[in-house]
Amino acid sequence: MAFFGYKDIDKLSGVDLAIYRFIVEHDEQIPYMRVRELARGAHVSNSSVMRFIRKIGYDSFPEFKVSLRSETPIQKPDDPGIQFVQPSAFPADITKIIRLAAQLMVNADNIVFVGIGASAALGEYASRQTSSLGFNSYVVKDPFYPLLPQLRNTSNNVLVAVSVSGQTTELVEMLNDFVNNPEVNIISITSNLESTIARMSRYALTYRATEERIHQYYDLTSQVPCLYIIEALLRELRHQEVVQHRFE
């Protein structure tokens, strides 16, 4: 039984939810608490805590604490200093790949950024900036959005997939509809060159970043290297657009 993987949250009562939220917010302290301390913090009774513990599959509070401790990673002290991105965070040929990716984009009829979660937020920023440069660009943040029907009668499209892991199942399934489509080119921005999404792409813009998660499911991996690539891509896109117009 895994506490953070508990799937029946919708079946919990209001009291149970109060206990659940308190545990999630104080997961590092819970293994050192007593039942009454947890109950006081969640503003419930001791018996409510014990009913909750049994409801989620544990025979006793000590058993629950041992299980929770095994699920909670050891946290390193936060470094208050600014985390600068070094050139070593990018492959040696990143500038060349950015230039090639921009060539695809500058001639595209549609530029669609796709991503989920924090990556979607970066895709939204990139799309807005791309639109400001005069390109037809938008972002898709919902992996179940009917993008295939929307692009069915269009040509010369570029999909820019933003994904830290490059393995997001829903994003892979969306891109799979376009891998063999001659009217769609896929560009990816990811920290994993060997990932599924990178291998599906014509050009993979990659960077190195240490994955960091809390509560196992919340991704706090730095998106700064990704933003560096997006900014470089926008500058190159602007440069190629100016050069192209100069010779028209």
TrEMBL record:
InterPro entries: Homeodomain-like_sf (IPR009057), HTH_RpiR (IPR000281), RpiR-like (IPR047640), RpiR-like_SIS (IPR035472), SIS_dom (IPR001347), SIS_dom_sf (IPR046348), WH-like_DNA-bd_sf (IPR036388)
GO molecular function term, any single one: DNA binding
UniProt keyword terms in alphabetical order: DNA-binding, Transcription, Transcription regulation
Domain of life: Bacteria
Residue ranges of domain HTH rpiR-type in the record: 1-75
Record domain SIS: where: 101-240
Biological processes per GO annotation: carbohydrate derivative metabolic process
CDD domains: SIS_RpiR
Record's protein name: RpiR family transcriptional regulator
Organism: Lactiplantibacillus paraplantarum
Gene that encodes it: rpiR_2
